[in-house]
Every structure is written in C-alpha cells, then in structure tokens.
Specification:
12 strands; alpha/beta
Length: about 325
C-alpha cells in the first residue's frame, strides 16, 4: 500500500530580513532568520518544533500560513504549491490551515464579542450568518470547554486559559486539516497549560487534525508530539520520532537541551551540560556548522563545512559531521 502523501510539505524554506541603513535606505545586511528548513506533516500527526528564542521557529510558522513571504523554498499544502500565492489565490486554501497565536489576548479583537470572534471565519466564507451563525458557533464553545452563554462576553471578561480556548474554537470553525500553533501555552499557568494541551489532543483525535506545534518547553513537546524537529540558528539540526529523540539524541545541541530539563526529584542527579558563550547573531552567522563555536566536540571540518541533514537510523535525521 503506497504511503499517504503529506498534508504539508516544506522544502528548503529560507527567510532573510533585509536591514536598510543610510540616507537612501540601502540594504546593508540581512537577518538570516530561516536558512533552508525542510519537513513534512501528515494528516492526524503533530510535529513539534523546539529551539532557543531567535532560532526561527515562529518565522517558519508564519511563512506556512502566509503571514510572512519566504525568500526562497517551497510550501505545499494538500499537494498544491502555495509558496507564491497572492492573497486572492490563498483564499480557497486558507480554510485548510489555521493559526493559534502565542498571546491569547492580543490575538482577539477587544471590540468584538466572543461569539462574533469565533463566528467571523464562518461569515467570511459565507457559511453562516444571522441567527444561523449563533447556532453554529455555540457547539464550538461547548467543545472547547466554554458555555454558550459566554458568547455575549468580550475578551477582557475571560481568563487567559479561556481566551486561548476561544482562539482554538476560532481555528476549528472552518474545519481545517492543519493547525499551526505558535507557543500556544507559554503565556499560561502550568495547570492551565495541561488543560489546553489535553484539549488539543482530544480535538486532534476527534477531528483528525494535524498540528505544527511550536514551543520551547520540551516537556510539553514530548507530551503532544509524534515527531520533533530541533532548530538552531535558522536550521533544523535533528528530526526524529519523539521516543527516539528523547531516548537517544544524536546532535550535541539536542543533548544539551535535554540535559537542561529540570528533574523534579532531588534524589536523582544527572550530568549538567552548560554551553559556553551565547547564541551567535543571525546577522553574522558562524561559517560551517552554526553550532561549532559552542560545541564541545567540534573539529576543524565543522568550522568550514555546513553538515547536510542525513538519516542515521530509520526515521532519525541529524545534521552533524560526527554522526
């Protein structure tokens, strides 16, 4: 039986932000935010993307939903190349991919009621309006753990966790195939985080959703993801099924990330890995492997030649000369 085609396929995605200086605003330098990222997401799957702040996770997410235009590379959704689609051309495809923002308050219009916020996508696509709109929106409120009576409330009348549930309900309204979630629980209390993550997992099972889940919390990513991609300075350095990655990380950066996770048991001790230096500037990137200035295993080759990502075991990919 042939393997099912991926719902989302990203190949060699690049984004450079020009920095203009001087009287005539000439481009002097570039911020290399994303530098040749490739991955795929299948229906019903969650791909988690982790990495330090500034590694390009959010920029990648925004390119996929066409909030940011890529410099080069390709984005295929349902087998259709949407990389260079205009806003008008994207209209027919935007229903298939929705976005959950990191800040559950600033992503909601404070002048609109909660019911109007969730119902707006249905009105935009002429699916429902008027009295029929309220009847269609109410089940979404109940499904995400809110009451139908709260449709008349405004965003400031909800708690942070409830506002994020509103964001999830809005993303569900158009029955998408893929939801891109950009750190959707990082602004929430830990107990609320667990509730929202479990809700997302239940919705995935019920509706067959695929998630691209951006986060910096490894515990959250391990709980919700099927596969995990680790990014460093605009590149994916490791991509694997979550059990393989957490049990046997192959890239030195991934090893350090996992070693930095606190162990909630004072009786257990594990070796600490402290990386020297700071994350290099995305404007003036190190040559060769971007990680080599901080890598304890770096060799001469690492300083001049960028490693290609390759499969070191079935389904486990790593960009490292030493693996």
């Amino acid at each position: 039986m042939p393997e099912q085609a991926p719902l989302l396929e990203v190949r060699d995605l690049v984004k450079h932000f020009p920095l203009k200086k001087g009287l005539f605003a000439r481009v002097q330098e570039n911020v290399y935010a994303v530098d040749g990222v490739s991955f795929s997401v299948h229906a019903g799957e969650t791909l988690g993307i982790v990495g330090e702040s500034g590694c390009g996770k959010s920029t990648t997410a925004r390119m996929i939903v066409k909030l940011v235009e890529p410099t080069s590379g390709s984005i295929r959704l349902d087998g259709i190349d949407i990389t260079h689609f205009s806003a008008a051309e994207m209209w027919a495809h935007r229903r298939r991919v929705q976005f959950i923002f990191q800040d559950p308050y600033s992503s909601l219009n404070p002048r609109m009621t909660a019911g109007a916020i969730v119902g707006e996508p249905l009105e935009n696509y002429a699916i429902a309006s008027g009295r029929d709109l309220a009847a269609r929106v109410a089940p979404f409120f109940e499904r995400v753990g809110l009451r139908a009576e709260q449709m008349k409330n405004y965003p400031h009348e909800f708690s942070g966790g409830q506002r994020q549930r509103l964001g999830i309900a809005r993303a569900l309204a158009l029955n998408p195939g893929l939801i891109v979630a950009d750190e959707p629980v990082s602004a929430l209390d830990v107990s609320v985080q667990a509730q929202v993550i479990n809700l997302m997992m239940d919705l995935q099972e019920e509706f067959g959703l695929a998630y691209l889940f951006i986060a910096h919390d490894l515990a959250v990513v391990q709980h919700i993801s099927h596969r995990v991609a680790v990014m460093y300075l605009g590149r994916i350095v490791e991509l694997a099924e979550k059990r393989s990655l957490f049990a046997s990380p192959q890239h030195p950066y991934t090893e350090t990330l996992l070693a930095a996770v606190p162990v909630p048991d004072p009786a257990l001790r594990h070796e600490k890995h402290v990386l020297p230096g700071e994350v290099p500037s995305p404007i003036h990137r190190p040559p060769g492997c971007h990680f080599h200035p901080r890598c304890p295993y770096a060799e001469a080759r690492c300083k001049t030649e960028a490693p290609a990502i390759r499969e070191v075991r079935p389904g486990h990919f790593v960009a490292c000369h030493l693996r």
